Amino acid sequence: MAFIPANAFRLDSGEQSLRDYQFAKKRIHHMFCAQCGVRPFSRGSDGKGNEFYAVRVNCLDNADPRELIEAPVRHFDMLHDDLESAPAETRHL
Question: How many helices (H) does the chain have, and how many strands (E)?
């Protein structure tokens, strides 16, 4: 995922197919396609009033697999909507 400020995000198409899913603290809106189930991005707030989007870069048009392989990996505890901490166990990820 690539985290960007809300004012830097633009959805070009497909809004009518998106559905919203929330869990845990219900601070983050996990968007998914009602047709195919792909989760292209999430949106939320950092608790300080800063709105953001978390874009799944593998869903972007023309994403270069080599760049994705070489990108740094960071784990998030999404079970608890905690973007500051990694899950206790990451060996299976």
Answer: 1, 5
